[in-house]
Amino acid sequence: xxxxxxxxxxxxxDMYEIRKGFGExxxxxxxxxxxxxxxxxxxxxxxxxxxxxxxCCFFHYLLEFYLANVxxxxxxxxxxxxxxxxRIANNFLTVKKELxxxxxxxxxxxxxxxxxxxxxxxSRFERMDSHSAALKALGELDILLEWxxxxx
Amino acid sequence: LLVSGALLPxxxxxxxxxxxxxxxxxxxxxxxxxxxxxxxxxFQGEYERDYANDSWIPIGECTGISATQCDITEDISATVPYxxxxxxxxxxxxxxxxxxxxxxxxxxxxxxxxxxxxxxDGHHLLVELEHLGPAFEFLVRYWRKGQExxxxxxxxxxxxxxxxxETMEAGAEYCVKAQTxxxxxxxxxxxxxxxxxxxxxxKA
Amino acid sequence: xxGASASHCTLPSPMNVHFVSKNMKNVLHWLPPEGIAEExxxxxxxxxxxGTNKWIKNSxxxxxxxxxxxxxxxxxxxxxxxxxxxxxxxxxxxSDWAESARFNPFTDTKIDPPAFSLSxxxxxxxxxxxxxxxxRRGPGEEPEYLHxxxxxxxxxxxxxxxxxxxxWTFCIKNNSLEVxxxxxxxxYCVTVQIYITPLLLSGFSExxxxxxxxxxxxxxx
Lengths: 152, 204, 221
Fold this sequence. Notes:
The complex is a heterotrimer of chains A (152), B (204) and C (221). Chain A is mainly alpha-helical and 152 residues long. Chain A is built from eight helices and two strands. Chain A has helices at residues 15-23, 26-31, 52-70, 79-101, 104-107, 112-126, 130-139, 141-150, and strands at 2-6, 9-13. A two-stranded antiparallel ribbon of chain A has the order 1-2. In chain A, a hairpin with a 2-residue loop joins strand 1 (2-6) and strand 2 (9-13). The model of chain A has no long low-confidence stretch (mean pLDDT 91). In chain B, strand 11 (136-144) and strand 12 form a beta hairpin. In chain B, 3% of the residues lie in helices and 47% in strands. Chain B has one helix at 46-51, and strands at residues 12-19, 22-28, 38-44, 57-65, 69-71, 83-90, 93-94, 98-99, 116-121, 124-129, 136-144, 151-157, 162-167, 173-182, 187-188, 195-198. With 221 residues, chain C is mainly beta. Chain C has helices spanning 105-108, 146-149; strands spanning 15-22, 25-31, 42-49, 56-64, 68-70, 82-90, 93-94, 98-99, 116-120, 125-129, 154-161, 166-172, 176-179, 187-197, 200-201, 208-211. At the A-B interface, helix 1 and helix 4 of A face helix 1 and strand 4 of B.
């Protein structure tokens, strides 16, 4: 597990389950993404480089973004693909539920930087049609996992 | 025998058998209808309930099967409550879905003390541990007999090799016990029985 | 979608375009177009940094006849992701571009088994693992060590006692191990593996052996 410390709140992410699930659908998902000139999770607004006090809120936004806009928007054709997305989604939900147990008002203050970074991602996402955007975001999970891995 | 038009009965006694993070859904067969009955299993995680309109996901390997059990380990892959259901089919007739009584969360799996094999090679204390998969770690405790107040600990990752624990003092007897730990559910098994071995005497 | 193919090319495209990456030395490989004699075909390679729209030529891989192209320089920044593509040329004809899957050096590289040195005394052997490094652009460049890129990096060391035919495993975090209280005048063989996660680990290195020294005080009966 990767443990993220936000103030006195500790959230654990099962990197193995998520990486295993994503590893099995990565090539298939990324191959369907025709828009190689667009990168949603741009390195200029990465989680590890976010100010410490804004990190929790930005992370919370990212979790909710994937839960609400990505996992259930991808038109998935194979049962195998559907089950792997379910594995990832339910693990994301586990993390979000843990984060919700923290006192988010004090632990997760939403400063300008967190909001700005999230809006950057959302604006790129909304410029694409919803299916292509969701597919791209799903294909960028390896970037998000790297961000989580590198977040001290 | 099924009277035509009568609905195929739904499977009964649906239960989960879960040990060491291996989860199986089992149910009673519709024996009266013989071997031709096929069963199909679907699951629904908390995500599907909260974000995906209560959708259900079929388990490919357990769709149209004759067996009355299904390995759901690969799909119960998060520590959230899951719903599970089974239905029967006979030709074109299908039964209604029978849903597991209550939700299943893998946090309730039963963790068994690990099997281990303790050895001494000369002055070296070694242990072989059961291979249980990457979700498992082993907390190994060892001490020198007679010095029970000084217990050493080592966390050993899952592996199927002989792990070197300690270099023992000549002629001393050491005891070892272990428990499994699953970080994903933050639970441990009970400790195994202790096993003791003796280091060789040093050369005169 | 972007990148529609040029209509006048009728040659079949190169196949199986993929990166082969070891410690982030990233080489693009492909197979010749189906049904075409390999030696006559030439290839041109381009690459793109994911998230940009500029396909960049690689000067060393223009009109080449080999079916690989070393893109280690171009893909050195392991925080970026990349796509690469190859076009075939034959007798004035050409093929459509054939594209690789998205390549993420951080997750897609394979880790080479590490090198290590051995020494021994009468009753002990010492193993010193050479900390594995990321591929370097030049000998003068400051090396970047894999344990800096993957902080959770550990080593699995196995020690095989040739006399009693037993193999032990040690898991170490730093790069040195001393095994004491061994039998004098005995052969031990060692292999080492790099372990980062259950999904990212190297193979075991080649086995290397050493004998513990004879015990001078031990009288042969």
